[in-house]
Structures are given as structure tokens and as C-alpha cells.
Task: inverse folding
């Protein structure tokens, strides 16, 4: 490598180290930002998606982590979703049911069901940096929000082993509404990183994806690690233990009966499982 290339590489590395915007290369002619966004979204969810995952929260490096295991079912077209916490014991059984436009939450310890406000959906979930809205809707608007191609980040290869397209996503295209910057791998269109920025373009949160594995022909990141600028020492991570794309779902999953874990009436043939089985009614 020539001296000039070394100088350029060092300059790019310094920009990354100090949090400055990377120097982007022009993207190949004809690259479609909307298609890249859709492909990145497909690595996280399908028309129907089932997953089991652990939410791991660590307040400070070296501190013991708090782990919450949950299962979730999503339908893109109907926008229905269901989430059930399996552990730890003090949170087990709590559930979230989304039947648009309403989102219901059930807390078994209080035997209480309530509808959630928009503010509650954007509050931290179980002490993590993730919000319920992040788990119930397409993440950061990938595949749905208007997308603009900013260029190619050559330094992403040094961080994740792959050069990346850089996209700008805006849920609301009005000026001053904030935006999401998405890094999408050049080779497989796998999401690598998401940056949320506010109306003043200050960084709010960063989500990094890792541990990419092949699932049903998709390059799926199994670790989603989130940090927020307001709490830089807290790390929240979703670790996928299982994910299935487009499985058959029982309609009974998306009901208040399942949310409340109530048994069907005597003699009823309706399926019921307090822990909720995997798709199609198969055993947990």
C-alpha cells in the first residue's frame, strides 16, 4: 500500500474513532435505495415471523446482565403481533397484543389488562434501551419509510468485514423531523448498523447487528446491540435463539384469550397453552 493510501486510511479511521461522519464513495449507478431497504428488512422479518429471543441488559461493563426471554409472532399485512415473556419468573406470563389500532398489555401479577398509549409504546421496555414500538413495528422503517442512498462506506469493512451502502430513512419527510441512517452490507444487503438522529441531527441511539447466520436463504443477524447517547454505559442486546419466516399461524394467537392465558370453555376444541407454543401449535 502506498504512502498516500495509508494517509487516507488513517484519516478515515480517525473520523470513525472521533464519531465524525465517514467519507462516502459514490454508489454504483442504478443502485435502488428502496430495494436495498426492503432487502435489509427481509433479513429481520417476513410476511409472517416467529421468534424466540433473549433481551440482555447490562448497566455497566463488568456488571451482571439481566436476561428476559420472550417469544413473538408478527404479521406484516394485518400488523397484528403478539409477544409473551417466558422468564425470569417475576415477569413470566406478561404479554403484549397488537390489534391495530389498539395495543393491549397484560400483567399476570396484577391480573390487569390495559391499552397502551403512544407514549407508553415509546417508553423503555423492561429497563432496556429498546422500546415496545421497536419490537412491534418494522424496525426504523426499514422496507417502508422513504429511502435515499447517500453512498458507500468503505470503512465499514474494517468494522464488520463488509463494505456498506449508507441509506437515509425518514418516516416523516417534513424538514426537521429527524432521520435514521442505515448501513446495509454491499454483498448480501444485511443490515449492519442503524443510527437514530433527532431534528437537530444529533445522534440519539445506535443499533449494531452481528452474528450473521443463514436462515431460510436469508443472512440474518442474531445479535442486535443497542446503545443510547443519554445512557452510554448501558448496553441492551437482543439475542435471537430461533427465528422462522412465513410459518403457519393459528388465528387464536392474536386474541385476548391468549393474552390473558385463559383456558377455553369446557368441551371447547380451541387450542390453549399458557406459554404459547411455536407456530402451528407445535410443542414449545
Result:
Amino acid at each position: 500500500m502506498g504512502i498516500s493510501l495509508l494517509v487516507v486510511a488513517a484519516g478515515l479511521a480517525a473520523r470513525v474513532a472521533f464519531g465524525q461522519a465517514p467519507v462516502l464513495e459514490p454508489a454504483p449507478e442504478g443502485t435502488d435505495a428502496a430495494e436495498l431497504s426492503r432487502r435489509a428488512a427481509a433479513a429481520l422479518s417476513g410476511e409472517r415471523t416467529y421468534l424466540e429471543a433473549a433481551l440482555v441488559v447490562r448497566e455497566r461493563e463488568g456488571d451482571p446482565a439481566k436476561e428476559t426471554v420472550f417469544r413473538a409472532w408478527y404479521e406484516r399485512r394485518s400488523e397484528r403481533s403478539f409477544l409473551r415473556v417466558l422468564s425470569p419468573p417475576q415477569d413470566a406470563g406478561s404479554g403484549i397484543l397488537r390489534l391495530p389500532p389498539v395495543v393491549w398489555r397484560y400483567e399476570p401479577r396484577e391480573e390487569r389488562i390495559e391499552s397502551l398509549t403512544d407514549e407508553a409504546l415509546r417508553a423503555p421496555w423492561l429497563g432496556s434501551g429498546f422500546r415496545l414500538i421497536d419490537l412491534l413495528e418494522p424496525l426504523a422503517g426499514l422496507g417502508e419509510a422513504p429511502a435515499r442512498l447517500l453512498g458507500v462506506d468503505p470503512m465499514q469493512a474494517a468494522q464488520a468485514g463488509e463494505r456498506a451502502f449508507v441509506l437515509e430513512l425518514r418516516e416523516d419527510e417534513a424538514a426537521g423531523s429527524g432521520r435514521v441512517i442505515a448501513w446495509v452490507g454491499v454483498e448480501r444487503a444485511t443490515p449492519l448498523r442503524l443510527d437514530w438522529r433527532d431534528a437537530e441531527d444529533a445522534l440519539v441511539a445506535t443499533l449494531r447487528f452481528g452474528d450473521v447466520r443463514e436462515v431460510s436463504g436469508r443472512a440474518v443477524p442474531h445479535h442486535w446491540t443497542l446503545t443510547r447517547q443519554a445512557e452510554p454505559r448501558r448496553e441492551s442486546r437482543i439475542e435471537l435463539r430461533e427465528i422462522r419466516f412465513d410459518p403457519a399461524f393459528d388465528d387464536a394467537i392474536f386474541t385476548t384469550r391468549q393474552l390473558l392465558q385463559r383456558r377455553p370453555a369446557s368441551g371447547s376444541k380451541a387450542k390453549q397453552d399458557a406459554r404459547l407454543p411455536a407456530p402451528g401449535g407445535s410443542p414449545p
